[in-house]
Amino acid sequence: MIGTGSCPRPLRLGVLVEDDPERTAVKTRLRISLNSGQRIFINGAALRVDRKVSIELLNDASFLLEEHVLEPEAAVTPLRRLYCLLQSMLLEPVGAEAAGELYRSSFSKLTDATICAKMLEGLDRVDSSVKAGRPYLAMPELRGLFALEDLASRAGTSPDAANAS
Q1: Is the dihedral of CA 41, 103, 60, 92 positive or negative?
Q2: What is the torsional sign of CA 103, 107, 108, 110?
Q3: Which long-range contacts link 92-98 to residues 24+ away (Cβ below 8 Å)?
Q4: Which helix (DSSP H) or strand (DSSP E) does residue 11 occupy?
């Protein structure tokens, strides 16, 4: 996996159908502009373009732009490691089941060790999305918790104590 280490949310084409929140339906087309040499990962496939190009996704697809990918060596904290597992579920569909098992184990250990109510609430939303088969929705939620984790790390305390100061 190649990326810059930044972690914007993965994009998902489609919007929720109002009468069935468990399904997605395409209501709009999505146009993506890529520069020469840029890569995009669509439903687990890696594509590189050799010139500036625009592509239009006409149906439901999970995708990550190259700059959305978190390098495994950048996953130095528990939340970032969890993010990498979710990312693996999207980028490597063949290994998604194994990554899911690692996610469940890591998630359980992380929640057992977490005392911060705000962190636990966010992790609950992450897990709900993953359990619903939507790891792409869990990723932005998880990324939103990075700042809280970083704050606690800099303070050398739990997230609860870091928030109190």
Answers
A1: positive
A2: positive
A3: 92/44, 93/43, 93/44, 94/44
A4: strand 11-12
| Closest to 71 in 3D by CA, of 12, 6, 136 | 6
Q: pLDDT tens digit string along 136-160?
A: 889 889 989 999 999 888 877 655 4
Least Cα distance to 72 among 59, 56, 88 occurs for 88
CA distances from 63 to 67, 141, 144, 145, 161 (A): 12, 17, 19, 22, 37
Six-digit token string for 74: 């950048």
Q: What pTM was estimated for this model as a whole?
A: 0.70
Judged against a pLDDT cut of 70, whether residue 129 lies above it is answered with yes
> Do 107 and 129 meet the contact criterion of CB atoms below 8 Å apart?
no
